[in-house]
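Below is how a single chain appears once it has passed through the pipeline. First comes the sequence as given, then the structure the pipeline wrote out for it. We keep one example in the README because the format questions we get most often are answered faster by looking than by reading.
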Amino acid sequence: MNTSLLLSLFLAADGSITIVGQKDRRNRTSGSVHQVDEEELERFEEDDVHQILAKVPGVYARDEEGFGLRPNIALRGASAERSAKVTLLEDGILVGPAPYAAPAAYFFPLTTRMTQVEVFKGPSAVGYGPQTIGGAVNMISRTTPREGSLAKIDLAYGSFNAMKGHMALGHRSGAFSSLLEGVHLRADGFKTFSDGSPAGGFEKNEWLMKLGWGNPPKPGLWQDVELRLGYADESSGSSYLGVHVDDAVSQPFQRYDASKLDRMRWEHLRGSLRHRVRFGPGKSLESTLYHHRFHRDWYKVAHFRGGPSLQDLMQASDQGEAAVYLALLRGQESGMSRPEELMLGGNDRYFYSQGLQTDLSWRWRMKDWKIIKRSGLRLHNDQVERDQREDPYRLVEGQLERTDGAEIVGSANLGWARALAAHSTLELAWKQRLWLTPGLRVEAIQNGFTDRLRGERKDERTQIVPLPGMGVFWRPGEAPIGLLAGVYRGFSPVNPGQDPDVEHESATNYEAGFRWFHDRYHVEVIGFLNDYNNLTARCSQSQGCGTAQLNQQFNGGEVLIYGTELMTKLKQDFGAGVKGELTGNLTWTQTAFQNAFQSSFQPFGKVEVGDELPYVPRLLGSLNVTLSRAPFGISWQSKGRSEQRDSAGQGEIEGADRIAGHLIHDLSMTYDITKRFRLYGTAYNLTDRVYISSLRPYGPRPGAPRRLMAGLKLNY
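Resulting structure:
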């Protein structure tokens, strides 16, 4: 369990793990904490984390290829780029390939096997790191059985030859327990090449084994140990090459022949050993040793040897020189000259991360006060080794042919980071009326960078940053309503290898609101303000950046991000066995640069005071209505967002910079054949809405069209 799980998990009296999603604890939390529970996850059987997090207010996600293979997640307006500004955890353990040295989340655990997803914002984020600007996303995996055995099987088939196989087998015998879980997902792509063959398909596998031992809960000493071993892989026809703005209107689901060889392959290995002990009333200690290894090789179109950049080309007028190069990409013409050669790059990268983290918790009473103190340490180090090469190709009658040109080595470097993180928090509860949660986190980070290609080593950088926070929740009387407020310091570190003038990202964040709760309803309205001293951005190919700027960070200066989040959940028993549930959320956000500057980071460009950040819609939200009467269930879900801009600016969004808003509808139905067997069917994007989700990288990218899925589940 992560030292940062200050609100997510705590050791109960019987030694079990209690989740913050339990109503009584969530209702008195002084920060913004939201969770998508197992029932909600199973309602639409979503395997795309973007779709799951659409149910949570204040979460911004930018889809890239329609299946959620490369999550781009942001909280409260922070950059969504590869989820690099969000702390990602599974059961409290950092899951990114290199969370400090290279936080871009090219690996993301399959949500298919999760039983709950938690999102922490506001003062709750003090306990998390290293990314504390927006908050954290914690995914809760299935536990080993507390008694007896369990067996879960889920088999499904759907549009675009999509298949899902999910199996979980567990058993407990005395003090010993075990769980083996595996997931297989695949699909053909919904895009097509000029010859009609599918493009953008994928295949993913993930296996996780848990072995546990624990003595029976009893007064005094209680302890357990758990070993985890995991493996995951992916092979997908992913490409950074989108389509031209004109083609996005007439043929949005085409894939240019120039990207026929594009493919992502990766493997992920991990292991962890957790020890948990309770000694005496209200005292517990939990320690986890973890190690992750991740290797990826993404071979894809990078650029023309000469001519315009791909990002500019996709938004240029289809005339003159641009028309020539667009015809090459489409496979309509053959490239014969040297500048017309396409460079395909192989981004071969090795990551590892490892660490030891521990949490100490104890609780006591003092007259009318109940006090819970949590303190923790995490010692962590990680590393990324990059080797980038480029091969020249010609497009001849729609086919890529390797030329006799030599392979070009684009980069060869090593970035590393070591970090010591400590946090301490208090939860002070007075007469079940007032809760105070002061806390302090300290991140001490040292990183370094070696450019092996040039034989250069950049100076090591040390960052020691205190991050205080304070949250308050007040329940004025017996009524089920409470007021909350909080302030905390947000932080995102500088990655290895950056210029000395690049500063870490920092902000003072505020929130205030109220919560109205009952067994049948839960309503929450929270206003937030993130006051950035310095906002940063990182240049990557997924941003449309060229080779010369890859992995560089840029200062964005002072920025204000503020808005309001609304969340509601209503339950109703209509009688005659008919039950209903309505859940919804709505987020309004405004952003504004507070200084003018000129940046070589393209999404910024020339910034004026008052310019809005790119890819932050003014409005986004979702609505879900569920009706059930055993053995039937039906759910309707609508998700939408307002227009967005592709680069910084203000006023009306015009031309190629505008990403139109959209509203998507999903429908799900279930039928319980028996107590153990369930038949389900889901239609995603039921009305087959055609929309553009992003203009980066390298041109407009459509969201997924209508997809149908049907499956059978066994739950024993």
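Helices lie at 23-27, 38-44, 49-53, 247-250, 310-313, 320-330.

See the next section for the split statistics.
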